[in-house]
Amino acid sequence: MEPSSPLPPFTVSQLSSLLKQTIENTFGMVRLRGEVSGAKMHTSGHLYFRLKDTDAVIDAVAWRGSQSKWPMRLADGMDVICMGRLTTYPGASRYQIVVEMVELAGQGALLQLLEERKRKLAAEGLFDPARKQLLPFLPRVIGVVTSPTGAVIRDILHRIKDRFPCHVIVWPVAVQGQGAAEQIAAAINGFARMAQAPDVLIVARGGGSLEDLWAFNEECVVRALANCPIPTISAVGHETDVTLADFAADRRAPTPTAAAEMAVPVRVELQARVALNAAQLRRSFLAFIDRKSQETSMRSDRLKIITRLVEEKMLRLGDWAERLPISLMQLIQGASHRVGTLSSRLIHPRQLVRQLEQSLSLLSHKLIAALKESNLTQKSHALTLVGSLLESLSHKRVLERGYAHVTTQTGLTLTGKQGCLKQPQVTLNFHDGGVNARVLGSFSEGVRKPTTAKPEGQGELF
Predict the structure, then answer these.
(1) Domains in the chain: how many in total?
(2) Do 147 and 170 meet the contact criterion of CB atoms below 8 Å apart?
(3) Is the pLDDT of residue 110 over 80?
């Protein structure tokens, strides 16, 4: 067995204490750059996280009191520079940095974070112009969210007093540092929940660096402004300073003083406008009265004419009223006389019926006789016409014009040559008597002379 070492042994606690003293005395305050990872807020208010780069990781802790001085709240992925003291934690055999101050690693990183947050909130529609509300023309109560100390609140109150004094409610908040964003958001939401809420709300802060104004870029403030039912004005920093609160508010003012000017009109200008409108109203009213007076005068003249016409009509009406009883009496007497005359002519219905029956019977007899006489006359005239027509169509009238009626011996009428040649003897009837004739032949056979003497009263037919 080898002999023991001459070095005295340390206890674990002694070695841990010696390491702690060595690290704290050697490094003291350091500035350490790295990426935030695993940030976690303890119920006590202390913040635990880690700083890392590509090759190493170190634990970090920030006590509750230190965080109130920070310009922003840490989140995973942020590139920061932390200033603090190195120390060890003997209970876990590890070393860590106790962070007292934090800043972003360069303006570019902060702007990049701002741009990413702006795109995210814009995609949610929080900056949509359709969400914007119109500011009231003449608010009765104005709410202001800002620091109770400093030039900002004094400038706003002074400007409102000069332009148009009205009631102002100030909700004091911290405008930078740890917890400022939560206070600003709580103030905006608190105004919105008031029973008698202000007519317009101003969220204001003076100028400063991007880190100083970072509270107005936090999501809680932007969402509170976007969802506020009260018309809001953002007046953060100077004209060149732009925060996300400016995009979420209904109006953006370049300065807090300009926000006060947006909130209220100029009382003197309003008074001048009211005086001008009053003068115009007075002139218009006087012109209206003058015009109506002239119209009244014209109508009064017309009324006089109408009065005279009414008087004339009244006189005529009185005359008619006097003449009416007399005319009415005359009318009644004339009607009574006509009634008496007609009464004397009135016949009893039964007598009138008998007279009508007698007249009807007499007319019936006359009608029957007239019909009979008219019928006989018509028939006699028709017979005469038929006789005249028959007489005109008689063959005797034809015979009188030199024609003869040829018949057989038995009295049959011969109408053609062939029938006549078949008869040995025919009778020629003239209008004054008949003559017997013997048929010898047609003209085409020639004329034959008779060989014997003709008996008296007979002839030959060729």
Answers:
(1) 4
(2) no
(3) no
